Structures are given as C-alpha cells and as structure tokens.
Amino acid sequence: MRNRVARTVGRYEILEELGRGGMATVYLARQTDLDRLVALKELSALRQSDPSFVRRFLRESRLAGSLSHPNIVTVHDYFESGGIPYIAMEYVRRGSLRPHIGHLSLAQVAGVLEGILAALDHAEQHHIVHRDLKPENVMITSDGRVKITDFGIAKATGKVQTSSVLTAAGSTVGTPNYMAPEQAMGQEVGPWTDLYSVGVMAFELFVGQVPFHDTDEPMAILMRQVSDPIPPPRSLNPEIDPAISDWTERLLVKKPEDRVQAAAEAWDAFEEIVIDLVGPRWRRAAPLLSPSDRPKDAPAGPATPPPTTAARPPLMPTWEFSGWNDSMSEAPTRPLRDRDEAALARTVMPEEPTRRLEDEDDPPEHRHRLLKAALLLLVLLAALAVALGGRGSSTGGTGGPPVAAPASALRGPDMALRVPSGWRRLPSAPDVGLPLSRAVAASPGGPREGPLVEFGLVKGNAGSNGALLPAAFLSSIGRSPDSPPAREAVRLPEHDLQAWRYAGLRPLGSGRRLTLYTVPTSAGVATVACEAALTQCDAIAGTLRLKSATPYPIGPSDAYASSLNSTVGQLQAATQPQETNLQSAQTLGDQAAASLALASAYEGAARQLASVDLSPADRQANAALVAALGSTAAAYRQAAAAATSGDSAAYRAASAAIPGRVAQVNAALAGLRRAGYKPATPDQPATPDRGGGEDGSQAGDSPEPRSDVGDSRSDDPSDDSEDP
User: Fold this and answer.
1) How far apart are CA 73 and CA 119, in angstroms?
2) Domain boundaries 1-91, CATH class
3) What are 165-224's pLDDT values in tens digits?
C-alpha cells in the first residue's frame, strides 16, 4: 500500500510514495506551476554522502533529459532542495511491465518489443547505452504502450570510457539476470549490450522465467551469463514458434561481435515473424490494456506462460526433463477454428471469415445458380473424358504423356528396378546433387536429353534425419531437415516399400526438376531420383527392389517409441530421489554420492539408447539425445570429483553447468516430440504420434502411405532380363 506524504519540495507538492530502492525513493508529486503529476525521484539519504551515487544520479538526469522519444520516459527537471538531489520525470501511472509477464498475447509481446527496440534505436543514435534493461524499467502508459525509464547507469558511448561497469567498491552495476557477458566482465559495452538484455526479456516473456532462474547468488549468475549456454526457448516451451525461438537465440549470443548489433535490425527481423504469424494488422491487438479498457471482442489469454512462483527447482526439474509426461504432452490437433481464444491471439487468422455456400445470409437464388453451374461443369468434364477415352493413351489416370511400362531390369550394387524398353544404362551417373553411393542411371536419349532415372544409397549420417534427405541438398533448395519440402507418403508396390515422395524439386545450380523417392533402410536411405512425368516416375520407382538391406517404415517407429519411453521412465525413476538427496545434502561427501548416482543414471540411459536399432529417420535425433545424456553425466561426474576432493568452490562451479546440460536433454526430447514421438502416460501406452501424411507434411510426420505408385508392370516381371 502506498504511503501518503504531505510536504513540498521546491515547486513540487509530494502526494504519496510510489516506491523505494537502495539508491532512491520515488514519489508521486504535483508540479504546482504547471498543475501536472510527475514522478519525483529523491536520492536516498544513505547515498547522498557517496560522490559516485550523486554523479550517477546526475548522469541519469542529463542522459535521459537529452532523449526525446515516445518510448522513453521524459525527464522534466533536475534540482536540489536542502542539499538533496531530485529528478522530476513523466509520471506513467500503470506501473512497470513486471506484473504483465505471463499474461500477454503474441501481438502484445510484439508491441512491447517494438516500443523497447524503438527507444533503444533512438538512444543508439545519441550514442547512449542503457545498461540496466529489465521489466521493472519498462513502464506501461495509460494507452497500453511502453516507455523505458531509469538511465541511472547509462553510458554515453564514444564520449566516456566504457571499459568498466564496476564501482570503486567492486560491486556490480546492473541487474545480473539481464546482464550481457561483456558487461559482467567489465569489457566494452555498446548497443549490442542492451540487445542481450532484450533477449533475456524476450526469453522471459515466452518461457515464463529468465534463463538462470535457478541460481540465487548474484556473482554465480554473472559467471553463468559469461560461460553457460542458454537453452533455446523452444526447448523449454515447445509451443514457441521456431522463428521466434531462433530470433531470441540470436540476441543471446555470448560473443558481442556475433550478436545482433543494432535495435533497428533486431526489430526488422522480429516484425517479419509477427506479420507472418499474426498478420499485418497485429498492432490493433498490441496495446496492454487493462481489463476495463479491453474491447469485449478482444482475444483473451496469454501467449506466454505465467511466471513461476515456486521455490528454486531441482537441477533436473520434473520434466523440463520429466516433462516427457507433462510439458511435452500431446499438442492439440483440433481444427484452428475450434481452438480457444488464447490460441487465436497468437495465430494468423484471416481478416474476414471465408463465406461458405451454406451460410444463412447467402440468398437461395444465388446458391441455385452456383449449383446449376457446378452440374454443367461436371457434364462437360464427363463428355471430355469420354472423348479422350478411346485414343489409346495410358496416363496412369492423371493425364500427361503416355506411361511406358517398365520392362527391363536395371541393376545396381545395392538395389535394382525396371525401366521402359528403349532406356539405356548410362556409362556414368550424372550429378543430381545427392551423394548417392555407387549410383546407377538410365535414360532413353543419353544423359543430357529427355527423361532420366538415377538411384543409389545415401549412406552414413547424410540422410539420417526426418526428411531422409541430406542437409546440403535441402539447403540447396532453401529447406532444412526440420522444414522439408512438400511430400507425400507412398507405397512402392512391387516389393511393398514405404517411401516419401518429393515432387518438382530443383536443386540450386541444376537445370533438372526431380521427383525423389526415399526409403529408409538398414544400410542407408535408398533413393530414386527421376526426371520425367510424375506418372512415369511412379511407374519406374514402383518396381524398386532392395538386394540385401532391410527396409523400415516411414515415420515414427513403434519399437523406438517403446524404447524411448522405457529409457526415459527408468531415468526419471532413478534421478528424482537422487535429486532430492542432492538438494538436501549438507556435506561434500553426501553431494559427491548423489552426484555420482545421477551420473550413473544418465550414463545408463545414454548406453541404452545408443544400442537401439533405428531407421535413418530417427538416428540424428536419437544421437542428439544420447550426446545430451552423456554430457549431463559428465557434468555430474565433474561435480562429484570436485566434492570428493573437498574443493567446495570447484564443486559450485561444476554444479553451475548442470542446468545447461539438462536443458540440452530437454531440447533433444523436444526434437523427438516434433518428430512425432509423444510421451507415455499412465492411461496411454507409448506410441508414435501418427499424422495424416498429406502433401506438405513436415519432418516427423508419421502417416501410413496414402497410395501405391507404379501400377504399370512388364509382361515378364522377372528381374532376370537383360540390363538395358
């Protein structure tokens, strides 16, 4: 509750106390000559005798007073009264951003970040770095916009020395949870320093807590800002859009020279993401209005999780590793129109609903005209089909050029298929942008003319991802393993092989437009690349035969899902009591014993998963999880060794690295969840999360193959015919 005060300082009538800090007390006051409310900051009596704090107080008034921007709190006046320094500044009545964290939609978060970055861009143009950005220093105006305040430790870059951020007494200037590594180490600061703080705030807005929330000691936080990796926001909250997670990560890069350098650059990148996710009119929903001011039809609910109020969590929290059963639970699959309003607040929606024929306000006569037109079109199409039906062309039912039935065997070292009569094996396989081992190719007119088919194995780790395509090839077409091109799950019928079919791919630097068929096998990814009409490619690929490799189904594996959930469940059962022991340990010996037990548990899980027989589609994600488990085990072993040697400082330093390693485990598990593996629950056994297998499905989709391809067969299906 605010304290009522009744006194006058100069031309300001103090009305009540708004807040008190170690350095200053802030009052609500009325400027009597202009009859306006101001926030009056008074230097604390305890600090008045300290020249450094007086200089800092004066610096705030001068630097902030030199800035005039809608997103920066205006400084009206600096004066002394009775030997006490005061700053009179704009009164922002709705307080700071802090209580709003966890209650904002994506559009509102974008509004906050736009205001902060616009203010920083203005400060940057005046060669000023704030150095203490945090939610408490972001104020909310009556119309729901934001303003930055408290330039008390700002630096005028290029005008004053920037090599130190420590006071003469050695105390840290700034707030450790939001402090950039270079600031923590007393190195040169610049606009990129404030952008790191913006990255921490964005992380908090989307995840619900700051990166090192589990550390209390300020110096320990500073050490972790310098040395510990910050996990991707999406690894802790899988609902965060990947583009937002990547954007936040770019602000949290440790090395200043590798970080985003300018506020305008950061905002330009984020605005593109917001427009893509929410639409070009997102600013309509951006103001942080109070409940009484919010329009009745405004979307409600947060796009960000509420801030945690629990005590310091264990180093391996209950699923942010154990979230395999909680935070990693199955994502909603309802249609977009059926999702709750909170989801709509962060989802791109059309400005106007699409009109359907059955809408009540659609006139009956208009529907009747549309129905007659549709019937007429069907009649015309049927007549056209009859007219073309007797012309003797075989198109496989999809139109286009005639399909020549595959008749002659084309053998390679690892697989074989059949090609139409007249196709000839090429002396060497042309480069189609894929690392095909011992590739074989054929064409009816030579390597540079007409259709082409080429096949071989992509071995090793090159195709070991959910897309079953090499990352370099995907990069050449502007894609990645996590965001593959449109594809369809198909069945190659002659030997009942499941495959992904990618149609119409044109690799960078290649004039070919390829249809690719990728089949996961025990020896690698069996790949057929075809440059011909789709129906002809389907007919050829449909005859694919593996010589010795064992094929796998496409999509997530039931066997791997079972192994994964069994291993993770055993790991949770082993680690949870040991985490409790570690948290309650009072001696280095007890800490060493608990740390060793935890290391053994993580090592056992890594060994179990490393021995699983996997489809190439799962190998990369599983390898990431095995590496993260091994890294976490190593961190616990290092902490145990330090505790065993009796070195408490080394033990604390080693322990500080453990949460980052556990975050890597969470990130790997989040990747598996995106790949289609959902956690087991008490009433639901471990199963893959089956998708629909539609065109455009992404890595990790797990549909049943939709259709057979290549129904055209030769009269003699034997593979003993002559090579062409």
Assistant:
1) 10
2) alpha beta
3) 333 233 345 688 999 999 888 888 899 999 999 999 999 999 889 999 888 888 888 888
In degrees and rounded to multiples of 5, residue 608 shows phi and psi of -60, -45
Q: Is 718 helix (H, G, I), strand (E, B) or coil?
A: coil
Beta strands in 141-237, from DSSP E residues, in sequence order: 146-148, 155-156
Token pair in block for residue 550? 């064992």
How do 406-411 and 138-140 pair as beta strands? unpaired
* Pairing status of strand 524-531 against strand 24-31: unpaired
Helix (H) or strand (E) holding 87: strand 84-90
d(C-alpha 74, C-alpha 77), whole Å: 9
Fold entry, domain 95-312: Transferase(Phosphotransferase); domain 1 (1.10.510)
Window from 49-63, 183-197, 563-577 with minimum mean pLDDT: 49-63
| Backbone φ, ψ for residue 310 (5° rounding) | -75, 165
The pTM (predicted TM-score) of the whole model is 0.45
β-partners of residue 499 are: 490
406-554 belongs to CATH 3.40.1000 = yes
CA 695 to chain centroid: 23
* Two structure tokens written together for 458: 């992509």
User: Any idea where the domains of the chain sit in the sequence?
Assistant: 1-91, 95-312, 406-554, 558-674
Cα 241 to Cα 107, 237, 244, 304: the distances in Å are: 13, 9, 5, 12
Residue 641 sits at φ, ψ, to 5 deg, of -65, -40
- Rounded CA-CA distance 469/713 in Å is 28
Sign of CA dihedral 390, 396, 399, 405: negative
DSSP three-state, residue 340? coil
- What single-letter DSSP state applies at residue 469? S
Asked whether the beta carbons of 26 and 41 are under 8 A apart, the reply is: yes
Q: How far apart are CA 219 and CA 200, in angstroms?
A: 17
Structure tokens at 49: 């005798």
Task: Give the catalytic positions in this structure.
Answer: 132
Please report the DSSP string for 248-298 in residue order.
HHHHT-SSGGGS---HHHHHHHHHHHHHHHH-TTGGGG-S---TTTS-TTS
Q: Quick check: 231 and 666 in contact, CB under 8 A?
A: yes
Rounded-to-integer distance, Cα 158 and Cα 187, Å: 14
**Secondary structure (3-state) at 20:** strand
Q: State residue 560's pLDDT score.
A: 87
Per-residue CA distances from 476 to 190, 433, 439, 501, 534 (Å): 36, 9, 20, 18, 22
